[in-house]
Amino acid sequence: MNRPRRKKEWFDNDAFWRELYPFMFPERRIADADAHVTKALALSKPAGKSALDLCCGPGRCSIALAKKGFRVTGVDRTAYLLNKARAKAKAAQLRIEWVQKDMRDFVRPGAFALVLSMFTSFGYFDNKEEDLAVLRNMFASLQPGGACLIEVLGKERLAKLFQPTVTSVMPDGTVLVERHEIFDDWTRVRNEWLLIRNGRAKSFKFHNTIYSGQELRDRMERGGFVAVKLYGNLDGDEYGPHAERLVAVGRKPTSTQLLT
Predict the structure, then answer these.
(1) Same domain, 102 and 144
(2) Do 37 and 117 have their domain in common?
């Protein structure tokens, strides 16, 4: 089947991922993957050892899952990030299936015990209904009784810490200026990252949908998931006033549940 023809969106710019890679995936974040995946597994409790890492990026969670004996499929649309993932997996002597595909197009019915979407990789699209399409793909790709875990920055947390402008300096002197603007009735956040290096500035713009806990739960339930639970971090703390992240875990009904 041919890939649907779509207008270009911000994530289709491969230069975005190349230039901002050191800021999005510093070594500390890569190193934390093992601990994050251990916690994600404790929350999701998958019944099997097959996992889909959706929007896998450079493969940090895919590799952590493979180390734990999972059969892993990592899916991402960006060749640059998948090449990073392949190199890391090869260095670790791990066999992982890497698939270059838009998450709106990837579905493998009944193939996985677990689907992971980590590090705010959900909510990219201008058309919010496409998030629902992704959830339905996730649901279809799960085995009966399978688990889906989505980890994002929740709307409640963003409202608490929102700053229009944030500046940081890297050890090599590169300056990153982040500008943020809430729009579309507090459902979207528009971002501009200015990368200033050797006296030259490059601008990268991107935007995404922001979900409250209730909004994400409702969207997952519309996608077919049951028993959706919300947590404030990967440690399993409640999703309350002090939540650091929004972690949602839902399940695909078992065959028995589908019949009742």
Answers:
(1) yes
(2) yes
Among 6-15, 87-96, 212-221, 225-234, the least confident range: 6-15
74 neighbors 59 (Cβ within 8 angstroms): yes
Whether 165 is in a domain gets the answer yes
When divided into structural domains, the chain yields a total of 2
The answer to whether the beta carbons of residues 58 and 91 sit under 8 Å apart is: no
Q: By 3-state DSSP, what share of the chain in percent is helix, strand and coil, each rounded to 5?
A: 35, 30, 35
- Does any domain span residue 244? yes
3-class DSSP state of 240? coil
Q: What pLDDT score does 258 carry?
A: 54
CA 194 to chain centre: 23
Same-domain check for residues 39 and 138: yes
| 106 inside domain | yes
Closest CA to 259 of 142, 110, 147, 144: 144
Q: How far is CA 236 from CA 39, 151, 165, 215, 249, in A?
A: 8, 12, 31, 19, 11
State which residues form the domain around 72.
Answer: 10-154+211-259
Contact 149, 40 (CB under 8 A): yes
What are the structure tokens assigned to 155, written together?
């709307």
Decide: 107 and 137 in contact? Cβ < 8 Å: yes
Cα angle for residues 106, 146, 219 (degrees, 5° grid): 65
Nearest of 99, 120, 121 to residue 111 by alpha carbon = 99
- pLDDT band of residue 257 (cuts 50, 70, 90) is low
Mean pLDDT value across residues 23-36: 93
- 112-154 tens-digit pLDDT: 999 999 999 999 999 999 999 999 999 999 999 999 999 999 9
